[in-house]
Every structure is written in structure tokens, then in C-alpha cells.
Amino acid sequence: MTATTKSGGEMDVRTDGEYLDFLAKRLDEFSRTFEEFMTHHVENSGFGAMAVGMAPAVLPKDSADKARVRVLTDELNRLAGALMDLSGVTGVRLAVQGAGVLDPFVNWQRMLEPKPLLDAPVVRGCCLQAAGRLEGLKAKAEALSSPTIEPSLLHPLVWAAAQRLWNDGHLRQGVAAAAEALSGQMKQLTGRNDASDTSLWQQAFAAAEPQEGKPRLRWPGDPNDQDVKTMQAGLLSFAPGVNMVIRNPATHVAEDFTEQDGLEQLATLSILAKFLDRCVVVSVDGATTSPAEHVFPEPAGEAKVLTRENG
User: Which is nearest to 210 in space by CA: 180, 241, 189, 237?
Assistant: First the structure.
């Protein structure tokens, strides 16, 4: 059984732990409400039963609180609506001769009709069986689950820029806005906006010494340490590469992608943003500052009108 996700893909609700929890909670509410409903009714069965099979399977007590019964009936119908997928998810349904396959939760009121197709024990039994199957499905979903990316836990600069567009379903534009915000941070750190973004990333992490008006971004630590050298060389390739393969297509190519694609790209931008936070800015006079010493404006969260750049 599948449902359509926000990004247009299909999700198997039988392996979605959050939805299974929702069904389990609503089923518990349904069961408890049903039991209260039955305190105002008697089962038309056993010794003294009248017209079994013709009269309703459940009859109101003479002492029943009619106002409360109406409230409980409304609540059971509301919960039955919330449980519209339960029978399909759990496979709990009834084959009734002459009536076909019956959803016992949505059709619970059939026990109150003449020639009833359900009775109270059947409804209770179906509730118990569905609850047990939901437990099994939740255990299976947990066993099959894999780590997921939580957008709100990405680097604040990245998610703040992407959030509004992302939540409105504009995934590509959200990625473009996040990438633009990250490039903007690099430009503020270096005080430069005189070349394409890719070129500026390359110059920021270049091994050459700083020049007038061209400070460098350096991975912290002893520049002669091999690990520091490796990180510096990696950032020289990684940062411009991220700009070329994420920012540029998201900005210039009008092609939507899946939610998973977008999350992976936002996560990559978040990694670069966190690396950038740790770097120091080295000026031509040897002065160094860290990104934490700079004050950045709050990202707007909206895509800007961008011009195509070379590289």
C-alpha cells in the first residue's frame, strides 16, 4: 500500500514508522471509545436474544444516556475516518456473504442495523488483531529503517536560506538559495566580489601567499603538518567543485529533482559551511581572523535573481 510524498515519490505506508504510530494511537482511541459506547448498549445474543440475524446485533439500554451516546457515536465515526487505511495496512477485513469484503472499522455501525453484518465481538476481535499486526509492522519498519537527514539540523546558514522555498515545495530553488548564501559568506570573509564564484573559491583556498586585496582561507593548524596540508588541498578542490556541481546547476538549470536529491545537496553545502566556519582568514600583512569574528546578515530564505557565470 503506497502514498504519494510531497516530492511526488511513493512511500509504502506499511514501512513508515510515523504513520504506523499514528494508526496505532487512533486505533487505541477507537477501542476505548467503543468500550464506553458499549456500556450504554447490550449485545443481542445468547439466552433471551430476539430475532437473531434480523434485529440489530447491539441494542441501546433503557438507561442509556442518549446525549452521551451521540457524542460517542460521532467520535467513533471520526476515528473510523482517521483509520480509513487501517484495514488495508494490516489486512484485517471481513468477507461477508452477499456483501463482499468489509472494513470492520469504517463499517462499525453496521452492527446497529437490522440484518447486521457485524457484532460487538467481531469489532473487538478486529481491533485486537489490527493492534497486534501494527506492532509487528512497526517492529519490521524499525528493523528496515535507515538514518535520515533532518533539514533543520543542517548548518544554520544553509537551512535558513533554503527553508522557506523548501517548505513551499521549491526544492531546486531552495538549494540554489542555500548555495548562494554560502558563497556570500565566503565573499564577506575575503572581502571580494570581483570574479565568478568558482574562481573566488579557488583563489580563497589557493596555496599562494595572500596578496593585497586577496586574502586566503586556511585550515587551522601548523601549515607544515601533513593533515593540515591534506585538508587545505582538499578544500581547494572541494569548495569550487561544490559550487560547480551544486550551485551552478541549481541556479541555471530549470530541472526539478527529488527530495532525496535536494537533501543530499543541502547536506553537502552544510559540510562545506562547517568547514568554512573552522578556517581562518589570512591577510597580506599576516593578520588572521576567524569566521566567528565576522557578523553576517540573516539569510533572506528567498532565491535571488542570478546571472550566469563562466566556471
Answer: 189
Read off the pLDDT band of 297 (50, 70, 90).
Answer: very low
**Average pLDDT of the chain, as a whole number:** 88
Between CA 57 and CA 42 the distance in angstroms is 9
pLDDT in tens, 277-291: 999 999 988 667 766
